[in-house]
Structures are given as C-alpha cells and as structure tokens.
Give the backbone structure.
Amino acid sequence: MLRNAGFALIALIGTRASFAQTGRVSAPITDISYEITADSSAVGRRQLGVAMSFVVAGDSPVILALPAWSPGHYTLLWFARRVSQFSAQSNGAPLRWRKLDFQTWEIEPRAAGPVRVSFNYLADAVDRAVAWTSPNFAFFNGTNLFLYPVGSGFNWPARVTVRTEQSWRVATGMDPAAGVNNFTAANYHDLTDMPFYVGRFAIDSTKIVGKWIRLAFYPAASLTPARRDRTFGWLQKFVPAHAAVFGEAPFRNYTVFQRSDTVVNGGGLEHQSSQVDEVTTSQLDAPYLSGLYSHEFFHAWNVKRLRPADMVPYRYDDAQPTTWLWVSEGVTDYYGALGLVRGGINDSTGFFNFIANEIASVAGAPPTAVSDASLGSWINPTDGSSGLYYPKGGLTGFLLDIMIRDGSNNHASLDQVMRHLYDAAYKHGRGFSPIEWWAEVSRAASGKIGPRERQVAESFTEFARHYVDGRDPLPVDSVLRLAGLRSESDTVREPRLGIQTSTDSTGVAITQLTPTGAAAAAGARLGDRIVTIGDFSISNDDSFEAWRARYAGTTLPTLPMTVRRGRETITLQLPVRLNTRVQTRVSPIPNAPEKAVRIRAGILRGTTS
Ligand SMILES: [Zn+2]
C-alpha cells in the first residue's frame, strides 16, 4: 500500500474473543459460486446485490464469514458492517440462520441440496479497499463481498458472475469463463485478490515484458490520449527494471485500476495482478504518480508473492501483524524509486532526493525500532511512528544494499537477496523467515562484513539487533560514504498556514483549519477559496510547497491573502509564522574512491561488477 502523507487511517480495533474462530467449523460445501448484481438500479442506491450458492451433503450447519481486512491494507475494516437484508434459502424455501459473531453467520440446511445466501452490500466508502459506486460505476474487492466457509481452509475453487447493464464493461484479473461476465478463481486467496471495475470506465492495453498491461480509469474522460501515452511510457520503463530483479513477470496480465475524484482517500493498494489507485483530480498529471505506480507494481513480487512467513497464508478474520512490514513496504518503496531511476524516468538527483526525504522522515520521527513500527500498522499509533516502516524500511534497505555491495566488492546486491528469497521461499509455497533473510543478506555480502563496515556492526545479526529490532540511529553517514555519497542537513524557516485544502474546478478550498494556525488568525474560514498569498498565485494543492520556499526566512510580519468566499473576494492579513524544518540533501562525494563510484553506479543501474 502507499498512502499520502498526512492522511490518518481510522482503525477499529477488536478483541480476540469476537472473531470468526468461534471454535465452530462449517459443514463441507461444494460447487461454490457468487453472483454480484451491479446494474444501474443497484448502484443508483449505492448498493451491490450479493448471492452465494453452494451444495451441502446433509443438514449440518454451514458457517460463513466475511473478512475483517484486505491484504495490503493493514487496518481492520470489518466488511460485515456494510451487509443488510441477509437471507438464506434452499429451492426457494427460506432457511433458518443466526449470527455467531458480528462477521459470522450460521445457516441451517434442512437436507442435502443447493443453498443460496444473499444480502445487499452498502458501497459508498471512499477507500480503495472497500466497494464504491456511482450512478454508472461500481468498484469492489472480493474481501468485501465473498463469504467463506469457516474452518475449511481456502483451497477451493469458485465461480463469479457479474450481472450488469449490457452496455457496461467489466474488468478484473480473474480468469474468464464461458458465458457473459463469468469468471473463475482456483482458490479463495486469488478470488479475493482480483478487484473489479464494472460500468462506464475507460480501458486500454499494451504489451510490456511479454504481458498485457491494462489501464482501467474512472471516470472514462480521465484517460486522455496524453495520460495514456505518459502512463504506458512510465510502465514501459520501470516494469522491465522490476522484472529484472526477480527474473520473471509472474502474472498473466496486469491492470492499473485508477479512480480520480475531487475527494479521494489518496494512494494505492496492491494486488497480485493489479493495483487500485485513488488520485485527486488535481493530481491526475502530477509526476508523483510514476512513483505511486512503480511502488504498487513492485508489490506484485514483494509481498503479493515473496512475503514474511507471518503472513503466509493470509488469515481474513483478524489482524495479521508482522515485524517485517519494513521489508514488504519500506523495501518496496526503495525499489519503487530504483525502478524510476533504472528505467530512466528520474535522473540520479531524483533518486538522491528520495533518499534524502527518507533520511529526513526518519530524523523527524521519535527513535523507533523499524520492526516495532511494522507491528504498529494495525493500530495507527499516535506517538509519531505511524507509517515509519515506509521511510525507515526504505532507508534500511538502501544501507543494506550498499553494505552487501561493499562486502562483495560489488559482485552482489540486495537484488540477489530478493531474488534468492523469491526462489527459495515463494516458489516453494512459503514465506521467508527472519533467519533466512539475514542469512541471505550475509551470504550476498560474501559471508563477511567488510573491514570498513565493522565500524557499523561486526555482523548482520548485530546490525539487526541495533538498527532493525533496536532503536540505535541508522549509521547513515558511514554507510553512504561506501557508495560515494554524503548527506547534509540544514535548517529552513518557512511559513505555515495551518490548513488542509482540496482543489476542484472552483479553486483551492480550505477543508481543515487549525484553530491556532496563521490562516485562522487571519480570519480565514472553511470553504474559502485561496487565490493569492503575498505575490504568489495558488492554483492547486501543490502550490503551497513553492509558496513556502518563496517566503522561507522572510522578515515580513504579514502577507496579504486573497480568498473567494461565496461571491465575494476578500483580502485578509495573514500573520507570518515561520516553522523550523530540517532539510536534507544527498549528493555524490567528488573524487570518491573507485570502488565507491562502482557501487553507486551499480545501485542506479541495477548491475553488479
Ligand atoms: Zn505499499
């Protein structure tokens, strides 16, 4: 997953007593199929119609549950809370049912034969893990809708039929079956990892690394020829770089699902053969999208296939914490940035800026073990460590890459670690263990810590104890030097407004106002459209960064701020309030030793020597 900075996830935390593991196991069911109704009548009511059909061999109770979360979105969302009008029947006659807990239903068949369970699903959540509808469109994730029999494992096949308008499209990564809008999945993990777009949206495809890569954009008008060409251009560049790390592209096809709107829960969510991105309309042409696509795409290997043993297999009824999200998310962030520079989308300066931002994010957070930050994902902690496994995990991956290259005289890299674990663990149907990870890192570094790295740690086990499971500050300066790089920090004093904004066709509106902030002190109100501040025009959410840079260190006591409020245009006097921020820069060391230059070039190109 990738989420926009500053967005707070709302987590509902449960207790262990209330999960689907009630100790009860469902009677076996066979011939499982689902029917989703997403026609204009259903989506017009912000609903999806859901039916599950199966066959029972007798009258033993069938116990069905809905997932509590979607893999990749490490937050409990309890999809059962959106269910209404639940019913069960056999050959048209109603069956008795009751709830065992808030996400588990017990159905009592009367005899062997077919059973059909149905319910309505409220599809109005602005969240890429949850179903959403508009009058001509529906998005859903299998975790939202597909009930599973409790205690029967997940290795059973299923069919899905989508009932929709004749002129509407259906896009999913599931295997198509005979008939119209029929699909199959070999097991429940695949079934719930293949999101659907239904309705009026735009789709286009091209071949990259020998596979069909599709863009499915909603609304349809958001897929302009220019955006299609630019997005395919990016994918043409970074997908081969990602595939080169693992030596294969393990999906039959791949879809970038993208929804844009004025208000979205911005970011992306990865699946085994797709990503679901949500983008604000004002950011449809933002260069940052290349990084979002690259990050989510790398997940097709790292986490969707190569995954910590704690998360293999996925469980769906409860949180599944791991101390290794720093590899699944942070190292993915690192490779997301590497894909951009290796593919030629960004130059080395762009990559060094990415590393500098990671250093700054880690420096700005309280000392936190990256393994603890990984565990914290599920509770969205308030101590400043929320999401720290992204920047600190990415930075840790970068340092390990340099140390491996230094120890092996640039004959090996973190790429080899990822590929060996992919071959050894994922391809043998299991997750990687902590011992395996550190053994591979150590092996790639030629079984030794280089003499200069001994200043950092005597072994990678010791490195893990201090810097991954411990809270020691990462040895950034000493390790960066091994790649001929240095980081410098200076302090900038820049003005802050104390607002959050959203851009649409009517302008840049204030959506949140900190009561003690400068904008509130100036008399700004929620809904005001900001036009100018000082001599600077505000045209979108990204304008503020340039505005802060323009007035960094200013000695002016106030700035005029023009806003539109209803039909009026008002000029407010904004008190200038400067905040101190540490700005970090990473740059090559001139005349660095030959080995360091080779390591630096190897990282940027994805090569060893
Ligand atoms: Zn991610």
Observations:
- The first helix runs from residue 40 to 44.
- The first strand starts at residue 2 and ends at 3.
- Residues 1-2, 270, 295, 299, 329, 332 surround zinc ion (CB under 6 Å).
- Residues 41 and 135 are 8 Å apart (CA to CA).
